[in-house]
Amino acid sequence: xxxxxxxxxxxxxxxxxxxxxxxxxxxxxxxxxxxxxxxxxxxxxxxxxxxxxxxxx
Length: 57
Description:
The chain is mainly α. 30% of the residues lie in helices and 0% in strands.
């Protein structure tokens, strides 16, 4: 997964920190997450925050 993040011009540490913070917000009371709610967390998503992206020079 870290290689996929790198290939999508993400900074892996900040990307993982972001998705690990977001996943609990998307789970139900049993800890299950609907897969359709994960699309915007994928490394190729344009919805990821700028903090996850590599700085352009």
